[in-house]
Design a protein that fits this description.
4-stranded mixed β-sheet; about 10% strand; alpha+beta; 2 domains; 5 helices; Nucleotidyltransferase, domain 5
Length: about 280
């Protein structure tokens, strides 16, 4: 029996072909979607891995950076301490040289006074035999006339002439120790904060501000003299009010106060042998 293909067979073949094309297209689109999803997932995983590595590197670098900073701070502290030690040694050496110069100057001045007091006839006979060794400072006589002088002065910031927005409220204490030849042996300069008497509730007492600052400068000068081993000085000042207070010349009629002030002045005189 012979079967003849008609129009229905052609239509079926065309339909099958179209179904095949549609299926292939669907499979191709599905493959593209799957590939796209895979790429997106890989990108997300790579991004997450990068963030994790970044945090890991940051956390691992933090201890090293902290250690480096600590070592740098320690090195700076050691360098500063070493510089302070060198400065202290240089200061002590300078004080030792100044103290030795003071001893020699005092010895020469006393010896010159003794030689000046020698009569001419004795000098003509025994002038070549006079000598005086350099003795220890503790063995020298403290009753002799002072050979060294202490000059001091304090200047407050409100005495500075010039334009400025406000008064910083500071002062400078200055003192100098001069030897028998008039040369400066040691000079001291020190900044301090000045105290207003009116701010302490002592109205009308600002006139004593200069006296207080000059007294502080005097103390700095006496300490400088003592640091050089000088036990007897002559104090030079232009502050008459301070001078009167030190010598208790202007204490009024309060004898008890005068007695206490006289005792304190005596102690200061014995301590510094300057007044």
């Amino acid at each position: 029996m012979v079967v003849v293909a008609g129009d229905d067979d052609d239509d079926l073949a065309a339909l099958l072909e179209q179904v095949g094309l549609v299926s292939a297209a669907a499979i191709s689109a599905s493959d593209h979607d799957h590939a796209f999803r895979l790429q997106v997932e890989e990108a997300i995983q790579a991004s997450l891995a990068g963030v994790h590595n970044h945090h890991h590197n940051a956390s691992s670098s933090e201890p090293s950076s902290d250690l480096a900073y600590a070592l740098a701070v320690q090195a700076a502290d050691l360098a500063r301490a070493e510089q302070d030690r060198r400065d202290a040694q240089a200061c002590r050496a300078a004080h030792a040289v100044a103290a030795a110069s003071v001893r020699v100057a005092a010895h020469d001045a006393r010896f010159a006074r003794q030689l000046a007091a020698v009569p001419d006839d004795r000098w003509a006979r025994d002038g070549d035999c006079f000598e005086r060794p350099l003795l220890d400072p503790s063995s020298s006589s403290s009753s002799a006339r002072p050979l060294f002088r202490v000059f001091f002065k304090a200047v407050s910031s409100d005495q500075v002439v010039g334009p400025r927005d406000r008064d910083p409220g500071v002062a400078v204490l200055a003192a100098a120790v001069r030897g028998p030849d008039g040369k400066v042996v040691l000079r001291v300069q020190k900044p301090v904060f000045q105290v207003s008497f009116s701010s302490l509730g002592l109205g009308g007492q600002d006139a004593y501000q200069e006296v207080l600052l000059d007294a502080m400068a005097l103390v700095e000068g006496l300490h400088a003299a003592l640091s050089l081993g000088i036990s007897s000085v002559k104090v030079v000042t232009d502050n008459n009010l301070l001078c009167n207070h030190v010598y208790a010349w202007n204490l009024g009629s309060n004898r008890a106060e005068a007695c206490r002030y006289d005792q304190s002045s005596s102690v200061s005189a014995k301590e510094f042998q300057a007044m």
